[in-house]
Amino acid sequence: LAFEVGDHVFLKISPTK
């Protein structure tokens, strides 16, 4: 559910990819 938004936010907060 929050995977799509989480991925985008996660990348902005902590680019792990």
Task: Describe the protein.
The chain has 17 residues and is mainly alpha-helical. The chain is built from one helix and no strands. The longest helix is centred in the middle third of the chain and has 11 residues, at 3-13. The model has no long low-confidence stretch (mean pLDDT 60).
Protein topology:
Elements: H1 3-13
* Shape type: elongated
Uncertain stretches of 5 or more adjacent residues: none
Largest pleated sheet: none
Nearest-angstrom radius of gyration? 7 Å
| Number of β-strand runs | 0
> Can you write the helix and strand succession as a string?
H
Helical content class: 55-70%
Structural class: mainly alpha
Mean pLDDT: 60
Helix run count: 1
What is the straight-line distance between the termini? 20 Å
Note the beta-strand portion.
under 5%
Primary descriptors:
single chain, 17 residues, mainly alpha, 1 helix, elongated
Summed up, what is this model?
The protein is mainly alpha-helical.
